Amino acid sequence: MQSGGCLCGQIAYEVKADPLRVIFCHCKFCQKTSGSAYVIEPIFNESDFSLLKGNLSQYEHISGGSGKSVVINFCSQCGTKLFLKPARFPDKLALYAGTFEDPNWFQISPDNTVHVFTSEAMHGTILPPLIKTFEHHFITNEGEAETPTIYEEPTIV
Ligand SMILES: [Zn+2]
Ligand SMILES: [Zn+2]
Fold first, then answer.
1. What ligand is nearest to the CA atom of residue 134?
2. What is the CB neighbour count within 10 angstroms for residue 87?
3. Ligand 2 centre and the CA of 95: distance in Å?
4. Which ligand is nearest to the CA of 114?
């Protein structure tokens, strides 16, 4: 079990499995919602996530890319975003990695990690070597796998 929560403590959660994959997302939506360069999103089956306490607030956004809804779940008291629920991938949650008590508990490796939407990344962002990177999503809206770019050395956008 790994626990996390929001800044003010109103919301607490735990997960009971490793993330299915870890997505570093550089898209404009993630820049806007985080106010930062990118978001680290470990992906979990919804069934491996438990809300321990608190009331989540929701904001629904229609993705310009897929046309599907993405629901941001956040604390209305302190504004911390806990996870995204994408209609495109039902039964999956994308947690905001920084909300874990220990954000370093899960592995980040070439086996489980991708960087996506690097075409939208902020200048100065450094992409790591050996990790799959994608200019857009790693699958197309039609569900086809995209071809990754894998850099040999750290690469500055
Ligand atoms: Zn809070
Ligand atoms: Zn994104």
1. 2
2. 14
3. 12
4. 2
Read out DSSP for 1-55? -EEEE-SSSS-EEEE-S--SEEEEE--HHHHHHHTSS-EEEEEEEGGGEEEEE--
* Terminal-residue alpha carbon distance, the chain: 36
Separation of 16 CA from ligand 1 center, angstroms? 22
Q: How many CB atoms lie within 10 A of CB 102?
A: 9
Q: Find the ligand nearest to 29 CA.
A: 2
Tokens of 143: 């569900």
What is the Å distance from ligand 1's center to 58 Cα?
A: 13
Tell me, what's the pLDDT at 99? 98
CATH of domain 2-156: 2.170.150.70
Task: Give the residue-averaged pLDDT of 44-57.
Answer: 97
Q: What is the pLDDT of residues 69-102, one digit of tens each?
A: 999 999 999 999 999 999 988 999 999 999 999 9
Residue 149 C-alpha to ligand 1 middle, in angstroms?
Answer: 38
Ligand 1 midpoint to CA 107 (Å)? 26
Nearest listed ligand to the Cα of residue 74: 1
Q: What span, in angstroms and rounded, lies between the C-alpha atoms of 95 and 41?
A: 5
